[in-house]
Specification:
Length: 402
């Protein structure tokens, strides 16, 4: 009996240091945030922070009143945290950012610099560093992006995050960029992060109206846009669509894309990239003038033909591969030229040099700011046309033969 009492006393003593969540808050007293938007205030002196809050009653569909599934609340402050606290004047619940999937920054603010914003996102214990980050383009505010409604997916912030992943897999002009990626790229000397752009296709006012969801051709749609190039923490320029695809080729992040070639007097041929691999090597033939060698191997299939060429002929396939190589090389060269004109090593060629030739990097590190804009880059592309889907020759081949 005495032994049992001692065991009970030991268990009670062990339980004393244990405690529950000291800041626990019931779910029905929380405002769950799906997305965060950061703009400059109209007077350009303060931040305007917007939160896309999920309306749980509308999401469940049981007790909904037919309203919008999300609501956007905004407040201004000298700092992001001050603006966040001011949101409590509008929202009757505790603002919870633990489930925020996206962060949108206005282009105007990005050109001034995002170092303060990134510090806040990194410092906050609730916001996840895996949240996707975007720059609002073409005059759209971050508030406008969060206010948009989407027919496919009730929560716009989650839908936008899914669009990034889908276009990365299918087209290759964007790829998911997270807060953690931005922090690491800012820390790279003479480099900067690359962030996906997002804009509104159509009317800015209509995209936020619920009536926009009642039409088969929506008057306003949130659209993935081209990629923003930063130097340090400041936005310096935008890539074109072809340059964005070229960026993914160089960085080895391309999954799938389509390539349209026009062999001389033979019509247009569209090929689908099924697999690709990129490797980067720094050559030191002249130690003071390194050369970057980008090698790409790609496997493709013919998907569409406005041509009468004979795909059964191996020589014809070899000719197609030559045109494909030129097209891939053209896109990679275009994005490298753009980055060099902005003097931002978004490809981290400097890090590649440091990794492959650490001793030489010590002497060139201080000169990289002057070396990168003039850096020689060579492109070796080896593409292979593996198949032509369900048929080889087009039916147009037989028509032309007759």
């Amino acid at each position: 009996m005495r032994t049992r009492g001692l065991w009970l006393l030991a268990i009670l003593c062990a339980m004393l240091p244990l405690s529950g969540c000291w800041d626990a808050e019931e779910l029905n007293r929380r405002a769950v945030v799906a997305g965060i938007g950061i703009d400059l205030s109209p007077d350009k002196k303060e931040y305007r922070v917007s939160y896309q809050v999920i309306i749980a009653d509308e999401i469940s569909g049981k007790t909904g009143r037919g309203g919008t599934p999300t609501m956007v609340y905004s407040a201004q402050g000298r700092s992001i945290m001050e603006a966040t606290r001011k949101v409590s004047m509008l929202v009757p619940r505790l603002v919870s950012t633990a489930h925020a999937r996206i962060v949108v920054i206005s282009e105007e603010l990005a050109r001034q610099g995002i170092s303060d914003i990134v510090d806040f996102l990194d410092r906050d214990s609730d916001i996840r560093l895996t949240a996707k980050i975007f720059v609002a383009k073409n005059g759209a505010r971050a508030h406008d992006i969060l206010s948009g409604l989407s027919a496919m997916g009730k929560i716009t912030a989650y839908t936008l995050a899914q669009k990034t992943e889908m276009t990365s897999k299918e087209y290759g002009a964007n790829y998911p960029v997270e807060i953690d990626d931005v922090i690491r790229d800012i820390l790279v000397p003479n480099s900067g992060p690359i962030i996906n752009g997002v804009d509104i296709l159509g009317n800015v006012e209509d995209v936020r109206k619920q009536s926009n969801l009642e039409k088969t051709d929506a008057l306003g749609i949130l659209r993935m846009s081209n990629i923003a190039v930063f130097r340090g923490a400041r936005l310096k320029g935008w890539l074109t669509e072809d340059e964005s695809v070229g960026l993914l080729w160089v960085k080895g992040k391309l999954n799938k894309t389509s390539i349209v070639i026009t062999p001389e007097e033979q019509g247009e041929i569209t090929l689908d990239v099924r697999r690709s691999k990129t490797s980067t090597q720094v050559l030191l033939k002249d130690p003071e003038h390194p050369v970057v060698l980008v090698k790409v191997t790609a496997q493709l299939s013919v998907r569409e033909m406005d041509s009468t060429i004979d795909l059964r002929d191996p020589a014809t396939l070899n000719e197609l591969e030559v045109y494909v190589n030129k097209e891939i090389r053209k896109k990679m060269k275009a994005v490298v030229d753009k980055a060099q004109s902005l003097n931002s090593d978004i490809f981290c060629f400097g890090q590649t040099l440091e990794r492959q030739h650490p001793q030489k990097w010590k002497s060139l590190k201080g000169q990289w700011n002057e070396l990168f804009p003039k850096l020689a880059v060579e492109y070796h592309v080896d593409s292979i046309v593996r198949n032509s889907q369900m048929r080889d020759r087009s039916f147009k081949y037989d028509l032309n033969k007759e």
